[in-house]
Prior knowledge:
heterodimer, A: alpha+beta, five-stranded mixed β-sheet, two-stranded antiparallel ribbon, 15% helix, B: alpha+beta, six-stranded mixed β-sheet, 3 helices, 24% helix, 23% strand, globular
Amino acid sequence: MVRNRDHALRPGEALVNVTWQGQNGDLRDPVPFDAREGDLKGWVSEALRAGEIPGVHARGHVDLRDFVVDRFPPTAQTPWPRIFVRPKTPFG
Amino acid sequence: MLETAVLIDLGGAPLYWHAPAGRSSAAIPDSRALWEALWLHRFELLGVAHTHPGSGVPSPSCEDLTTFAAVEAGLGVRLVWWIATMQEVVALRHIGPGRYDYGVDAQRFGAERSGWLGELRRLSQGGAVSRV
Lengths: 92, 132
């Protein structure tokens, strides 16, 4: 079990951070680090629509189809796994 | 020719040059570093310019349009999206009503008078980043 200020994470779990409409926050509950991208986007979308991500107030339609998922293992500075849901940035 | 991008501030000056490994004449790959630069500069950001190969009038690819929409959704602001070839440049903005409905803005937002357009083209021809 790893603890930070707000969460207790079991082995294999990660915190999920999302950036949406210029705001940034973490899902209240940890998720499996290896969760499928589609599932992660679904959970985050649902939480955004419900206003359940502290610090993020979603306005209008929430659609994460063009967002991507970055996964980072624990580090010395952040001793728990992190998942970030962010806009994609490629150009073609 | 290597596609290259640059973030432009509200005063028309370059904020961040993006010439990552893996870029090609056809594409610039997804980059967390670019997203972090966009987020860092979000309060002073006018838009993003990138290059396309050739010299004709450019038009956005499907990849471009979906990136424009994603970045604007993440930042919560509308931006100017320039696309430059070696001889032409266009500035696009969201015109709606659809998520991916972007149109050419006749103003071009000073691109042709700027110093960054020439530097962007130089980097797209394989030049090294000399300033950030």
